[in-house]
Structures are given as structure tokens and as C-alpha cells.
Amino acid sequence: MKTVLAIRHVAFEDLGSLEPLLLERGFALRYLEAGVDDLAGVDPLADDLLVVLGGPISVYEADIYPFIADELALLRVRLAADRPTLGICLGAQMMAAALGARVYSGGTKEIGWTPLTLTDAGVNGPLRHLVGEGCSMLHWHGDTFELPEGAELLASTPLYPHQAFGWGARGLAFQCHPEVRAGRIETWLIGHAAELGQNRISVPALREASLRFGPVLENAGRACLAEWLDGVMV
Predict the structure, then answer these.
(1) Which structural domain range is residue 177 located in?
(2) How many domains are contained in the chain?
(3) In a 3-state reduction of DSSP, which class is residue 112?
(4) CATH number, residue 201
(5) CA atoms 179, 184, 185, 189: torsion sign
(6) What does pTM read for this prediction?
(7) Is the pLDDT of residue 234 over 90?
(8) Residue 70's pLDDT is what?
(9) Which of 1, 121, 132, 209 has the fewest beta carbons under 10 Å from its own?
């Protein structure tokens, strides 16, 4: 049986709408909780798919959160071996850092729904499912990263040009959140209440936008991941 390992940094930022597809594809799924489970003891190459999920911490805070060093070490081995790897938000930043790129504060929070603009490479790959009529993308970050040397830029927004990149034949990183489920957005609004308040972001407006755009993104995200899996699980 194929296996997928998901590294989770905060309980409500899970595989979301991607989980049912993985189960339908016959994957045995397990989560490891960053900061609780021993990431240093994980075989980086054992699982058929590794997914590194989002969270409110920063890659450059390893002095505060020591597990980050173990997570980066795991990713370095995994990416060097070109094993199927998916990074979402913090996970994308982790992938960039593991590939030698600088991760840093962007100076401005990008929280809310903004459509992606795809590069030619993005248009000609699985990300094409993430654009089109009625489709937008949830963004929730303040950090960003330089594009790793050798990576292929796939998507941008006006505020942050590095929204998605491909690495090798089997690596995909999203600064944004293609996995979000509209029906679970309330857990995000509660879990990130302090951040939303500090940045004076309207919770009712964000809730309304999420309920409007979320169902479309669930279908689009599923189609994107399904096509990506078809290409990397060979």
C-alpha cells in the first residue's frame, strides 16, 4: 500500500480537501505533529509522498523551535532524492530553505482571497486548474522566500511574486492554501484570532469570502493534486 506522511504544525491546518483524494487513491495516511513527534527519527525516503503543512511560525526561528532543524534536514534528503514532496505555506518555506534559499519576513501580511497569476510553466501544468472563472486562492502568510536556484516559478500574486514553484520532477510548493475547506474555515478564524485582530482584518468579510470562493477551490485543488499525483507517482 502507498503511504503519505503529513507533517502538521497546528491542528486545524491539516490536509483539508486533499485528504479524501489521497484516501481514494489508496494511500495509507499518517500525521506527525511537529514539536511533539520525533522528526529526527523519520526515514526521509520511506513514504511514497511527504506533505509538509502550514503553521504560524517562521523557518528562521529554529532557536525558538528546535524541531525546525530536524524538519529541514529531512527535507534536504528527500528533495535531493527527488521523492514526491508537497509543501503548503510554511511547508513551501521549509522546502525553499532546505534548497538553500533565503526565507524572510515580507513586511506585509497577505491574508485573504486573491487569484493566482500563472507563469507559462504553471499554465502548462496541474496549476491550470487553480485559475479561471470564480476561482480564487486563500493566502495567509507574512513571510516569503527567494526562489531556490534551479526551481521553476509557477504562480504569483501582485503582493508576493513567489506563490508556487516546482522542484525537480516530483517537488511542488505552494505559498498559498489550495487545501482549505470552506466548511472548516471557522477553525482558522478562531485559531488565528490574535493575528487577524492585530492586522485589523475583518473576520466577517474573510468568512464571507471563504464561503463564496472555498467550494470552487475545493474542486480546483482536488483536480490540481490529482493531475500532479498522476505525474509523480510513477
Answers:
(1) 3-232
(2) 1
(3) strand
(4) 3.40.50.880
(5) negative
(6) 0.96
(7) no
(8) 98
(9) 1
